[in-house]
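Problem 12. The chain below contains 496 residues. Write out its predicted structure in token notation.
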Amino acid sequence: MDAALAVTNKTSLEEQGTCAMAVPDSPSKQLPEQITFFSGNPSVEIVHGLMHLYKTNKMTLLKEDVRRSPMLCILTVPAAMTSHDLMKFVASFNEVIDHMKIIRDSTPNQYMVLIKFSSQADADSFYMANNGRQFNSIEEDVCQLVYVERAEVLKSGDGASLPVMDLTELPKCTVCLERMDESVNGILTTLCNHSFHSQCLQRWEDTTCPVCRYCQTPEPVEENKCFECGVQENLWICLICGHIGCGRYVSRHAYKHFEETQHTYAMQLTNHRVWDYAGDNYVHRLVASKTDGKIVQYECEGDTCQDEKIDSLQLEYSYLLTSQLESQRIYWENKIVRLEKDTAEEINNMKAKFKETIDKCDSFEHRLNDLSKEKQAVERRCAQLNSKVAKLSTELKEEQEMNKCLRANQTMLQGRLREEENTHKETSEQKDMQLLEMQEQLRDVMFYLETQQKINHMPADTRQEIQDGQINIASSSSPAPSGKLSSRKGRGKRGK
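Solution.
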């Protein structure tokens, strides 16, 4: 079965305002014009094909009315990404995906995926959302998409039959045994060319095909390189220990390995030819068929291959093989002894470290228990102190409010006290003045009464004389007491 795919890689840009900018170094410019691919189970059938990438020099916008195809191809999908991861990656577009097919090329550790969408708009949406997007946040691989213009499949068979007109038998899904219709459910075709419903394959826990048990996606393979310098060209592998080194035209690490270990035979990884370093030539030159590469028997002509020469060569080869095997046995036994010794020392060191770690864990566990108890005690004490602090805070607020009220009352009372003191002072002054006046009046009254009594005790002639008499006050010579007495007498007389 041969297949040929024609793919158009159209560079599409999103409009930003009124202008569209072109990326100078887009991935599409780095793609080759042709990519060989294959799919299928090697033990059953392998489908080879050639995929042509037609590049356009004119950049187009996805929103322009440009002829495109509802089929896309994801290039360079890492082999570590399983079909489950692939379906998770396109999970948001499951409802608009009609068919997905996994294919691969000769490049190791990667494969390609053909995706057919329900409409052109869905394909454009998928292109805009996932082109250049990383498959996951850990690895640096990005999704590289190209538009597939058409897919031409050429099939060859042993016989032919007339097709049934207007009728197409739908295949069955081997997981759920239901018919697979692209218009109803999305279909995924694995690398072994077996098709299933996408939902059914998601529920399939294994990474192999449910039908043939072949891997759904290519298995990751380890890339060969020189163990010393990392070169990936002109590599030779030692047939004794598996050491990989570069050839004599690079850095001669394969020959240096022979000098160090005396491992005589090494095989070139590209053409699988074995080199003998002791004889400095190839070990054999077997004749292989050009069609399938299998070793075939070649009949030599003439008498050049004598039996004696063959026997001697066989005997020499047996001696050489015996000596080489003996040397290799000694080498590997010594290496095993060294490895056992190193392993025993490493085991003892690991046991000591393990014991030390166990002791530390025990001490840390005891310490953790003690700290947990201390923490609980501190938490209880902290809770008590918090409650006490809350209570004291409440009391402090009450005391502050009370002090505030007392200070206000004190200020008011001090004002009233000052007013009362002023009032009392004024009242005292008034009373003192009144008291002085009363004392003056009392003195006058007492003097009047004493004078009246004295006059009453005098004889009648004297009283008459006093009544009829006059008091003359001298101008300057009369003393004050007499004048005062005269005045008092006069007041007494007037009063009498």
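Discussion. Residues 224-297 form a domain with the Herpes Virus-1 fold (CATH 3.30.40.10). Students who got a different answer should revisit the alignment rule from Section 12.3.
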